[in-house]
């Protein structure tokens, strides 16, 4: 062994060190997370013996089809709502630097509040004697309280509220990366502010929009607490159906539904991850 | 011109109001003097805070949540920081595989994680015990630690470590005197997020806390099924203040280190 090498560990040892550092965490996560989830999912193909019948049965399982459709529909509405409300805020966050700190605080404060507390807040607001009903009654716009709590609309409003930051932050990131001289060039060449927005800003912010849409849709698919608290008793989501089946110890069915939910989420991410800019925006916005 | 500016500004203002208003309502209701939930409150008082602070039924789950979260911080920060150091030096294919496993709890739907853990933990005898909660919450908290520490590591100028080594520092001396001080803010931010993620976690706790390890979110959930009395508003306000303080600190810490790096 030469003098220069004597400081370093033997070659093969040095290569093993990174893996040895990562190993404790990887083994921990395998034992307490990955293997548990995988063994549970296996129940969908191994109960009572090796079979795909649980999946085959889904195609004419009316309860599943209704719930799955409701879940997709809710996610779609929530994503559209978040985009509609999120884009203007993202634009303001980037274009009004003077107000940016205040806007950021107003976005982050609810973002950091737990989903349970925010869902509870909506229960307080939307209840039969909640603030919304009392205000509408006092204004004489209603004769009797409106039923808002425990309807699909309640779920949609509360979910938009909870997921909105996940839409705003990636769009703001994309907008921030647009070279401001492009906008100046467009208006210098005679474009109206609206035309500059439509032909320059909007197309260049699309990676952020795509990342936000993907993030919100995928997160919305798995929502459980909010629909269970403020949603309708009939319009349940896939997560709620899964929880119900576990309560009834219907593990094979619960595992099959879980696999469908997980596969849907992963397929969407895999399909969109290659779009330009999505992976960067996605990573940057993982809080 | 003024209308063209006023209109977008008021639209954005309304959307921001939509974001903050529910939080404000919870805080205001918590100071209500009424025995039932009503807004605006007829008068203000601290009776719901008194109800919370004098009830063992609320304080016991609060302490459990705090110490479970503290244990999660220790475990996830230790495992996550050491793993982040290793992952940065792994060959690319292994790095993708390892970070895929570690970050996956951010994407896998909460209910799937929760029932998987419930299914296995029932066999390990970990349902209804704080240990089960600690192990499960650590897996969910680790992604925050690893992303935060990895980002700090990526920002270190490798010449600093090389300089220390060439000046005769041992590898461990280099780590403790150069690398660790540089990534300390990243570790701290990760630890704060880990604490909050465990303290606020509900879906897994619903399945595995049983009757022996009822956490604060689980206690709130159980209470909401029967009544929405303003005690929950008081508890919510306290958790809002706690999370805002901790995460605000994490945010400032991260901003400051980002600025230091660009200098």
Question: What topology emerges from the helices and strands here?
Answer:
The complex is a heterodimer of chains A (287) and B (263).
Chain A: H1 3-6, H2 11-46, H3 53-58, H4 62-95, H5 100-112, H6 115-126, H7 131-138, H8 152-176, H9 180-188, H10 193-204, H11 206-221, H12 225-230, H13 238-247, H14 251-272, H15 278-285
Helix pairs in contact in A: 2-14, 4-5, 4-8, 4-11, 6-8, 8-11, 8-15, 9-10, 11-14, 11-15, 13-14
Chain B: H1 2-30, H2 47-53, H3 56-87, H4 92-103, H5 110-124, H6 130-154, H7 158-166, H8 171-200, H9 203-208, H10 216-226, H11 231-262
Descriptive account of the structure:
Chain A has 287 residues and is mainly α. Chain A has one domain (50-285): MetI-like fold, CATH 1.10.3720.10. Helices cover 77% and strands 0% of the residues of chain A. Chain A has helices spanning 3-6, 11-46, 53-58, 62-95, 100-112, 115-126, 131-138, 152-176, 180-188, 193-204, 206-221, 225-230, 238-247, 251-272, 278-285. Residues 1-7 of chain A have low confidence and may be disordered. Chain B has a domain at 56-226: MetI-like (MetI-like fold, Orthogonal Bundle), CATH 1.10.3720. The longest helix of chain B is centred in the N-terminal third of the chain and has 32 residues, at 56-87. At the A-B interface, helix 2, helix 4, helix 5, helix 6 and helix 13 of A face helix 1, helix 3, helix 4, helix 5 and helix 6 of B.
